[in-house]
């Protein structure tokens, strides 16, 4: 009886405790869910941070991005960017020079440098051997041309030896031979001027056709049959129009080249003598488009050849090309107002570098700063 009484009292208390139990259970579940879904501060991963030791940074001369002064100090857009990153992160580093971009990339891939900073274009080929940071500058290729007036005789020779000219001249000669052969077939039995042996008759007919085409015929001979005269009338009209159009086209092309120059845009490159920097990303582009090119070890060498008329165009990264021309070749060489093949510059690191994440963040922070805008303006006059 006593036990039954206890059970009865417990049964009466349970409905009163039920809300409290439900509330407690819901609270516990909510806390657990929040703990699982709320972002937690990740533990600091030292592998993504720059080390305390002195970093070895590779570079090469690529004005205005990296320039070595007579006293051995380095300046330039890329150098200023890296110095800003190093200052903000409290990094110690030393710069080591390489003679070319290719050797710089290869040394970085071997692990000779912790990072490499210059004007290193991010390309698929280079991405296979090194890691790149986020791009810090976007540009493209430019074309430098000579400012010296083009020689008219040189352009006449170039025009007369071009594939288009030879094709047009060949077509005219071929039609003239065809008309001559048809005249011979129509006239050989009715006109002694085109009669005789096949060689004699064909020779006279073709000669007459050439005279008509060039309007040099004296009119002392001509076809007598109806078919021959009809063909002669058609050939006279067609040849006059064809020669007039052909002459006008050649004259227009020569005049345009004399006034504007040989190269005015990218489409002109396949038909001219093109120069490029050996080992640069430009080589791959020209090879891809099957544009023949002459390679130079230095941009200055190509610019000198351009000024002397040995080549017609020099293709290279536009900001580097514009800087060099403005500094050393402004009187002889100019850069066209065209940009093609968009490119980006980045900081190179060995594949799997422990500093890549930290470098990405540092680059993104730096290029959003006011100091970066001032750097671009001071070197290139650009406002970004």
Automatic annotation (TrEMBL):
Q: Which SUPFAM superfamilies match?
A: Periplasmic binding protein-like II (SSF53850), Voltage-gated potassium channels (SSF81324)
Q: Which InterPro entries match?
A: Ionotropic_Glu_rcpt, Iontro_rcpt_C, Solute-binding_3/MltF_N
Q: Name the keywords, alphabetized.
A: Glycoprotein, Ion channel, Ion transport, Membrane, Receptor, Transmembrane, Transmembrane helix, Transport
Give the GO cellular component terms, alphabetically.
membrane
Coiled-coil region list:
none
Record GO terms (molecular function): ligand-gated monoatomic ion channel activity
Pfam families in the cross-refs: Lig_chan, SBP_bac_3
The lineage's top-level taxon is Bacteria
Keyword Membrane in the entry? The reply is: yes
Compartments where found: Membrane
Keyword Transmembrane helix included in the entry's annotation:
yes
Annotated membrane topology is: Multi-pass membrane protein
Q: Gene3D superfamilies per the record?
A: 1.10.287.70, Periplasmic binding protein-like II
What's the protein name?
Transporter substrate-binding domain-containing protein
